[in-house]
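Assemble and predict.
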Amino acid sequence: MLSKSKIFFKGTVAVLPHMLSVIPFGIITGAIGIELGFDPILVYATSLIIFGGASQIIFMQLLSGGASSLVAITSVGVINSRHLLYGAVLSEYLEKLSFIKKLFISYFIVDQGFAESNKYLKQNKNLSNPHYYILGTGVTLWFCWQLSTISGIILGSFIPEELGLKFAIPLTFLAIIVNDLRKLDHVFVMLVSGFASLILFDAPFKSYIILSPIVALIAAFIMLRLKK
Amino acid sequence: MTWISIIISGIVTYFSRMAMVALIDREMLGTKVKEVLNYVPAAVFPAIIFPGVFFNDFGSFVEITDPKIYGAIVALVVGFYSRSVIATIVSGLLSYWFIIFFLLR
């Protein structure tokens, strides 16, 4: 049986490759906040309090562009609502925990951590203390995100823009799902989501981020019904 | 005002992380819902990938010759056969850089 610290460490190792995109993205996020004219403490507060890359950038861009607080908050809420889906999946591994522990671990649920945890825990259903794996991924990503946004705030965007490191973001998510391309049903759901996102891209409040998954999950539901 | 907005945004975001974990009892989800949840990664991540590859910074479609498309194809093929996260990201970035720094110069 694996000890708790070993399980935690496994989670840490699983998300390390994603640092290739998380760290540049964090630096960019910090640097953009300063460029937009926000107080450094305020920029950092978004990393600590909101803790969600894309939503932090949109939030600061909207406010600096003169949008109302309500629009900025709504956009953050819409973009981050995908975490509801992550929570629904991960709750399988967290249901035995006390309420307080659930509240604590929830703060660390993020894209890459969810994806790696889901992948590993699905194959290791009998693992005791699976929440340590989720924590290992989440806490590692949290630390790197905090440190990289702070360095972006202090040093500015010291990564040359010509490198186009923003491209690392779609790549990190591609790396997450590329293995599921072996399963036709998953490929179908991916294509529905991808094309929906291209069609819905201009929907208000960046809502394509949650509308496309909903469309794809409905398609998955219909597909499962037809299969039977 | 900005501070209040950050805090409310933080609460909203935290709620989205916490609600399904701490407030919903799994028994309430039917077996059909649980089956559909298997497709969450397949349903969520393409909605981030496709716009990231096929749209430019101004939200319009890139041309068919855009280096991002070819970087993504290389990453897809390498990732599929290597099953490695790091190989997927690195091969995508390297091929993207090769195109913009060597082929397009």
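The two ends of chain B are 48 Å apart (CA to CA).
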